[in-house]
Amino acid sequence: MNAYGDVTSLKSSSYLNIDVTTHDTYLRKLLEDATRRIDKWTERIFYCLDATRYFDGAGAKLVLPFDLLSITTLKTDEDGNGTYESTLATTDYHLYPLNDVPKVRIEINPNGNYGSFASGVKKGVEIAGVFGYGDGYSATPYVAVGTLGAAVSSTTGTGVTMSTGHSVAAGHTIRIDSEQMYVQVVATNTLTVKRAVNSAVAATHAIATDVSTYEYPAPITEACLITAMRAWKRKDSAYQDVVGNPETGEIVASKGIDPDVKEIIKMYRQSRYV
Questions:
Q1: Mean pLDDT throughout 195-216?
Q2: 3 state DSSP class of 3
Q3: At 136, phi and psi to the nearest 5?
Q4: What is the pTM of this model?
């Protein structure tokens, strides 16, 4: 669960110009829906998924169907018995593109200890790491937004207390230590969150621990806010396809991703170069 825009920005004068909290939950859900529409249209995710994924074995080059930000472990099953007995060191492979993120392929280092990625073995590669596009600049696309005002002493509790002066908003995905949490409600310094999102692991956290929020490319955030804003406006027409206007005639309302939004984010539509 995540959103590429936040409720505070959506309510600002740049978008809806709303200063009441009555509709905050509905607005957050509009942002979540807009986020999923963007994921579907671009055929990629921009949030950070902590996951273990599997791939068919390959020769000296493994082209990834998913964006990759970082690798924790890369293992291969050389004999196809279902056990990933070989763990490649970072010196055994190179991530491409070399100087940019996200990574889209992995190549064997000819000076390393392996000649292939379990070539010919179905489900021969296991990669644990962080998948997703992120902000397009960093393998760790998050920035500090405050500190904990109280310890998080439970792995299941949904209340988080921030220190005064934080900048967390509903719709943000925050990171505390290595746990990701999705912020559903903000009441001054008290957050209501969904724990351990994006396959992260719930943990306890000490008071004064740094809290960060994940960042996405600016055009993706703008597209999310515009899509949510237009969905809010369209509710007044009961989401009709055609809206009558006595002065200008019929107005056809587009569905799905708005054409203007497509123009904003078309550069992010997934393609793969080997």
A1: 98
A2: coil
A3: 85, 0
A4: 0.91
